[in-house]
Design a protein that fits this description.
- Two copies of one chain form a homodimer.
- The first copy, chain A, contains four helices and four strands; from the N terminus they run E-E-H-H-H-E-E-H.
- Helices cover about 60% and strands about 20% of the residues of chain A.
- Chain A has about 110 residues and is of the alpha+beta class.
- The first copy, chain A, has a single domain, classed as Winged helix-like DNA-binding domain superfamily/Winged helix DNA-binding domain (Arc Repressor Mutant, subunit A).
- Chain A has a two-stranded antiparallel sheet with strand order 1-2. A two-stranded antiparallel ribbon of chain A has the order 3-4.
- In chain A, about 25% of the residues are buried.
- In chain A, strand 3 and strand 4 form a beta hairpin.
- The interface between A and B is medium-sized, with 24 and 24 residues.
- The first copy, chain A, binds a DNA duplex (30 and 30 nucleotides) through helix 2, helix 3, strand 3 and strand 4.
Chain lengths: ~110, ~110
DNA sequence: ATTCATTATGTCATAAATGACATAACGATG
DNA sequence: CATCGTTATGTCATTTATGACATAATGAAT
C-alpha cells in the first residue's frame, strides 16, 4: 500500500496553479513556445492555451510575454511573476511530498 | 490564495481508501446500516455499496459484517479491521492537513 | 504585399467518472 | 410461510472534465 496526493492552489474557489500547469510552464520556459510545449506534453494547443489563460485569470497576473510574426512565427516566454510562482510551487510540492511519505511510514508501517 | 490537497491510499494502482470512503464508513458505524448511511450522505445505495465493495477488493479485507432479515431488515457494522483503517486514516489525514497548511504559510506568505 | 509559424478563441466531440433505475436475494420475525 | 427492510448486483443515464477541430489574428521577415 502506498499514499498518493494531489495538491494545488486556489483563488476564490477556482484552481490557480497545479501540477499540470507546472509542467506546462516548465515546457514553455524550456522551449520558448506555447505551441511547442503543448506538442511535447501530448496535448492540443487549445488545451494548453486554455490552462495558461485560466491561470492568468485566477491569479490576475500575466504569465507569458508573447510575440507573433517573424521568422519562426513568434513565441512565448515566462514573465518574472510566472518564474517565481513556478519556483515556489516546485519547492513547496517537493517539501510536501517528503513529509507525506515520512508520515505515511510512521502511521502505516 | 489557499492550498487544497487530496490524499488517498492505493494498492496495486487502484484506490484503496480515500476521503469519501472515510465518510461512508463513519456513517455506517454511526447508523448501523449501509442503506441509512447512503441516504445521509445523499448518495444512492448502489453507489455506497460499490465503494465499500471496491475498497474490500483493493485491500483484500472484509469491512462490514452484514445481516439481512428480521425486524428492521438487517444492517451492517464495521469489522475490527475497518475500524482500525478508519482510525489510522483519520489521524494521518489530520496530520498531513496541519503540515500542508504550515508549509504553505512558510512558502507563500 | 506575401508568407509563415505562431498566438488567440469559439464550438463541438469524446471519454471518464458518477449516480440513477430496476430487480433479485436474504432471512429473522411474527 | 408471508412480510418487510435490508443487502446485493447488473445495466443504463447523466453529468463533468478534457481534448479535438476549425478558423481568425498577429506581425517580423522577405
Amino acid at each position: 500500500m502506498k499514499v498518493i496526493f494531489k495538491i494545488w492552489l486556489e483563488e476564490n474557489g477556482v484552481v490557480a496553479f497545479s501540477e499540470g500547469r507546472k509542467m506546462l510552464l516548465e515546457a514553455i520556459d524550456r522551449l520558448g513556445s506555447l505551441n511547442a510545449a503543448s506538442k511535447e506534453l501530448g496535448m492540443s494547443y487549445r488545451a494548453a492555451w486554455g490552462k495558461v489563460k485560466a491561470t492568468e485569470k485566477a491569479l490576475g497576473a500575466k504569465l507569458l510575454n508573447v510575440t507573433t510574426g517573424g521568422k519562426g512565427g513568434g513565441g512565448a516566454v515566462l514573465t518574472q511573476e510566472a518564474k517565481e510562482l513556478l519556483s515556489k510551487y516546485k519547492k513547496y510540492k517537493k517539501r510536501i511530498a517528503i513529509l507525506t511519505e515520512k508520515e505515511f511510514k510512521r502511521f502505516f508501517k
